[in-house]
Amino acid sequence: MRYISTRGQAPALTFEEAMLSGLARDGGLYVPETIPQLSADNIRALQGLTYEETAFRIMRPFVGDGFTDEVFADLIAKAYAGFGHNARAPLVQLAPNHFLLELFHGPTLAFKDFAMQIIGQLFQEALERRGERVTIVGATSGDTGSAAIEAFKGLDNVDVFILFPHGRVSEVQRRQMTTPPEANVHALALDGHFDDCQARLKDMFNHFEFRDNVRLAGVNSINWARVLAQVVYYFSSAVSLGAPDRKVSFTVPTGNFGDIFAGYIAKRMGLPIDRLVVATNQNDILHRCLTGGAYQTSQVHPSISPSMDIQVSSNFERALFDAYDRDGAAVAQLMDELKEGGFNVSQGALQALREHFDSGRVSEEETLATIQSAQTTMGELLCPHSAIGVRVAETLRASDTPMITLATAHPAKFPDAVEKASGMRPPLPNRMADLYERPERVTRVANDLAALESLIQERINK
Ligand SMILES: Cc1ncc(COP(=O)(O)O)c(C=O)c1O
Ligand SMILES: N[C@@H](CCOP(=O)(O)O)C(=O)O
After folding, report:
1. What pLDDT digit, counting tens, does each position of 226-261 carry?
2. What is residue 228's DSSP assignment?
3. Which of 89, 325, 328, 127 is nearest to 229 (CA)?
4. Where is the Tryptophan synthase beta chain-like PALP domain (predicted)?
5. How remote is the CA of residue 140 from the centroid of ligand 1, in Å?
């Protein structure tokens, strides 16, 4: 299996090379050259398997021979052993034909753990075998950062720098990133918003001298391996509701478009998914684009669902690549226009996107009201991001197709918003009950590429 860039100008790589590289050298994102297909019988055979067995069958065809079957199965087992639920991703029924897929039972209480835990294992295995070390830099609006730190803290051959927007993540999210004592962990609070963090990260990848000097690696969903690991729970949940003999739809709280893109890959592999519904907060560039065709950036408005306060949605580039019939030059042109503020999606590409995706936008008031009503009528305490998904699903779902809404984070990560809505303050799990007492370690940084690069260089030279 080879991986190609969405901008068509970077060399094709193996899975392991693409994983260790992150962003392609032409600025694009890696995608598989072809999508492996699962027949209805292959999908039916997933019924009754453990999450780990399903993960092996779904990911194996994408991974290539860098990892043997035995090693790969062992890494998967280690990745999910620390999850706090035997099913790993349990389904809870909210209403007739509406289900919640709880993706917050991992070590840092958000869906990011599903990918980050296995990526941590794959990186360790590959780096040890190659005798290499890397500098991971990640951009986060709150959840990717703590999941990456949890997966890579304490490793000898990795330094991990996490850029988060100063003052724009919840206190629990911040403390998850600033309290780990391991010397290879560096939490950097940037003066700006998430899009600034992500833009500086991409600048570092496009600055080849720095990139090669520090051996830069990325674990945001620009990294294909992140998307791949998230494909698994689309299969496990759909199969438990009767796939392939019954279609299902998914509603996904969306920001960087990585999670819902994993659903799209599941569909392309043969999983019978009817609709993939993008649910956004007031930072609604994706909803505006899917309804009107204009992908136009605007100011980022802080919200009670801070992890989705994103206007430049990285993985949308991967969806555009397919919608433009894999024309890398066309995608590169759109990305150039994005630097000037935005672009219009062609009619043909918009139609192609709409064949798979619907969308909805939820206001702050509606988010609070949904947390409250889900708690009183369904007995489920939702985080604000998951509430956005539930709200959009309730509005758009068809009565005859089961809808699965992804619950992307634990409500305890956002106690203020949840308490405001429901009157209940969700406690942290016992293992992190002293989070508020742990000392914090964080460096405040300007939104300045040169300053960031020298700080990173200095720290890794120590
Ligand atoms: C809790 C939560 N929900 C939803 C999202 C949006 O996911 P994606 O960026 O993959 O669209 C994020 C951030 O990525 C998140 O942290
Ligand atoms: N919401 C994310 C933003 C980064 O997304 P990623 O999936 O590209 O890593 C976060 O919590 O950091």
Report:
1. 999 999 999 999 999 999 999 999 999 999 999 999
2. H
3. 89
4. 99-331
5. 10
**Ligand 2 binding residues, C-beta < 6 A:** 140-145, 220-221, 255-256, 258, 307, 314
Among 26, 213, 78, CA closest to 137: 213
Tokens 């100008």 sit on residue: 9
Ligand that lies nearest to the alpha carbon of residue 286, given by its number in the listed order: 1
In whole angstroms, give the CA distance from residue 387 to residue 372.
9
**For a pocket test of ligand 1, which of 101, 104, 108, 111 has the largest count of ligand atoms closer than 8 A to its C-beta?**
111
Q: Looking at the CA of residue 198, tell me the nearest atom of ligand 2.
A: 4
What are 31's strand-pairing partners?
A: 4
Q: How far apart are CA 349 and CA 322, in angstroms?
A: 8
Annotated catalytic residue 112? yes
How far apart are the C-alpha atoms of 350 and 292, rounded to whole Å? 9
Average pLDDT of 7-33?
A: 97
Among 227, 256, 410, 413, residue to substitute to test ligand 2 (most atoms within 8 Å of Cβ): 256
Domain edges within the chain: 81-107+225-422
- Burial track 422-459 (b if 16+ CB lie within 10 A, e otherwise): beeebebeeebeeeeeeeeebeebebebeebbebbeeb
- The closest residue, in CA terms, to atom 12 on ligand 1 is 307
- The pLDDT-based confidence of 66 (bands split at 50, 70, 90) is confident
Domain 81-107+225-422 has CATH 1.20.1250.20: no
Answer whether 71's CB lies under 8 Å from 79's CB. Answer: no
Q: List, for residues 159-173, the tens digit of each pLDDT value.
A: 999 999 999 999 999
